[in-house]
Each structure stands twice: as structure tokens, then as C-alpha cells.
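Technical note accompanying the year-one report. For the benefit of new consortium partners, we illustrate the data format agreed upon in the data management plan: each record pairs a sequence with a C-alpha cell string. No post-processing was applied to the example shown here.
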Amino acid sequence: MAPRYFDSSPYAAPDGDGRIVQLYRALADGRFAQLPQGLSRDEVRALDRYLEARLKLEREERRMHFGALALTAALFFLLLPQVLAGQFRDLLLDSMAALLFLLLPPYLFVYFNYENPVRAMSEAHLRLLETDLSLENPQA
């Protein structure tokens, strides 16, 4: 099993015991799959504001890791033709290519561990917006 630090956000869980903090924790503990039941319109809006702020931070973190993955992959594939043409005779070039190749799986793993929660949070954000609209227009 992977260490827990790959499975969590780099941002600390919210502190406090307020209602919105409790609702966010319940949403996060369920991996953003289902909204807490019995939300009032004010709770929906407050939870959505908090979720949107965290989502912006998580998206930025995801972008950074995608950049690292893309840069590593690009450098590896730029070096690969020279390594193959040199028939593995240049120790420095070969070592750099091997290091870049070895970095690709961890970067890929870390990136997708950011991608999946961000998608789940985005879906929860949309569900909160839909819930807010349904509470605004109960007859629709």
C-alpha cells in the first residue's frame, strides 16, 4: 500500500468545529462522492465557497506536478535519440537519461494522485451548485 502522504492534500485539513468545517470533513471523508444530507441553502453556499477555494489551490498543485511530469518526459525523449545514437558510450548522457526515465513513474503516480481528487472535488462543486439552484427554484 502507498504511503498516506501520496493520498492526501498538501494543504492541512480545516481547523475548528464549525458547521461548515464538519460538512467539509464529511464530504472529504466520503471522497467527495456524496453531499451531506439535509443542507440548508446557506450551508450549501458556504460549503461551496470553501470547496471552491480549496479546489483552486489543489488545481494549482496539480498543474505544478503536471509541469514536472511533462518536463521530465520531454527531456527524456530529447536525450533518448542521442543515447541510442551514441550506443550507450557516454556515461554522463546515459546516466541523465536513466535518471529521467526513473523519475517518470513517481511523477506519473503523484500527478494522478492529484488529478483524481481534483476531479472528485470539481464534481462535488457542480453538485453543490445544482443543489443551490434547486433550493432557489423548488418548483423546477
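Partners are asked to follow this layout when depositing records. The helical segments are 19-29, 41-85, 91-136.
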